[in-house]
Design a protein that fits this description.
2 domains; alpha/beta; globular; 16% strand; six-stranded parallel sheet; Rossmann fold; 216 residues; 8 strands; DNA polymerase, domain 1
Length: 216
């Protein structure tokens, strides 16, 4: 039996794409750049906000000063609007409650910056006592670097053999591989089954309830 389940946030626990897209488009428009459609954003996210901003900009405008200016504008907007359109995927609240009631420890490992990660998790899952809620922090490499997973393992004090890592993208599957923990790819997120298969997900699930079987 697994005793710790680590969840990615965006595209796994919560559908955050509209709020991310609106914040990025706000920053783009505020700085005189063309905006993107919401349909394009699932393929722009996944490696942290800085990388998202870089991807939204024309290649010739990805200099450090422009990216920093865009980041400030993105965070100014997102900090105020990060729960406007965001919502849990169907079955996720029930899954977390079931795992909690089974005495399975729960954690979050996100490339979203820490302030927003903590606020969003607290807003949508106030009754879940996560052993760790880890977002992107200055000086710590983002996923697929496994540092964030190692930090969670240190707090949970459990061996890797008792851990499942759940995510929706190749970044997540590579994170799990580098951390040497079992990976679970979810098909309801931003990227889909093809990417999960190609990134060698150990397990692939189509519904949150299927994770219970993997834990048991």
């Amino acid at each position: 039996m697994k005793r710790l389940v680590i969840f990615d946030l965006d595209g796994t626990l919560l559908n955050t794409i509209e709020d991310l897209g609106h914040a990025a488009n706000y920053a783009l428009e505020h700085n005189g750049f063309a905006t993107h459609t919401m349909a394009s954003y699932p393929f722009l996210v996944g490696n942290g906000v800085r990388r998202l901003i870089e991807r939204t900009l024309p290649e010739e405008n990805r200099d450090a000063a422009t990216v920093e200016r865009m980041l400030r504008d993105f965070k100014e907007y997102y900090n105020e609007h990060n729960t406007d359109c965001t919502k849990p995927y169907n079955g996720i609240p029930e899954l977390l409650e079931m795992l909690r009631d089974m005495d399975v420890k729960l954690a979050v490992a996100s490339n979203k910056y820490q302030q927003a990660t903590s606020r969003i998790i607290g807003h949508f899952f106030p009754t879940i006592d996560f052993v760790a809620v880890e977002g992107q922090k200055e000086g710590v490499n983002v996923k697929p670097d496994p540092s964030i997973v190692f930090s969670i393992l240190a707090q949970a004090k459990l061996p890797k053999s008792e851990v499942l890592y759940v995510g929706d993208s190749a970044v997540d599957m590579e994170t799990a591989r580098r951390a040497c923990v079992d990976s679970v790819g979810v098909t309801w997120g931003f990227r889909g089954q093809k990417e999960l298969v190609e990134s060698n997900a150990l397990h692939i699930v189509n519904m949150p309830s299927e994770i219970i079987d993997l834990v048991q």
